[in-house]
Amino acid sequence: MKNTLIATATFDDITTLNILVNSAYRGDSSRKGWTTEADLLGGIRTDEEGIRTMLENPAARILKYEADGELIGCVYLEKKDGDLYLGMLTVSPESQAAGIGKQLLEAAETYAQQQNCRAVTMTVITLRHELIAWYQRRGYAPTGETKPFPDDPRFGIQKQPLEFIVMEKRLPVSATPLV
Fold it and tell me: Whose CB among 74, 83, 86, 111 lies 3.0–4.6 Å from 122's, allowing a Cys bridge?
């Protein structure tokens, strides 16, 4: 049995997070898993500067998943207008389909409730049908809103026109004790 830990990432994790995220989303290494974007986007998914910017945001945090001291998963969380935005949910291609993504998603939802958020929101590339279905099985629903994919090489080079679907999962309202 592996010793696992979900904790908040720090600046010391930047290099390892960068390697993990890019290996899971882009290039040949990403094709080992089912979450690859390699057929949709070229270039890198993120860089160390982008991850540093995420960690410097006081409204955000990155949760990391470690097994036996090895970083194999992460998720970006940012509180926005009473909701928690979830992005960059990542699991190493070699470790996918082992429930790690589900554990990170549950940790994100717990964090959102602790922050008194109304819902967890995210954007998913509309062509990622398997990923959208995975989120739907976990209670996320399309809001009907779409957003354009950024025309910015820092997020990847589009191999075809892309857009995002906005998905959301409403959280149960916390019972507030009467005083």
Answer: 86
CB 91 within 8 A of CB 72: yes
* 179 in a structural domain: no
pLDDT one-digit tens code per residue, 145-156: 999 998 888 788
pTM of the model: 0.89
* Number of domains into which the chain is organized: 1
Q: Which residue has the tokens 């006081």?
A: 58
For position 102, which CATH number holds?
A: 3.40.630.30
Give the range of the structural domain holding residue 38, as residue numbers without chain letter: 4-170
Q: pLDDT tens-digit profile of 112-162?
A: 999 999 999 999 999 999 999 999 999 999 999 999 998 888 788 888 899
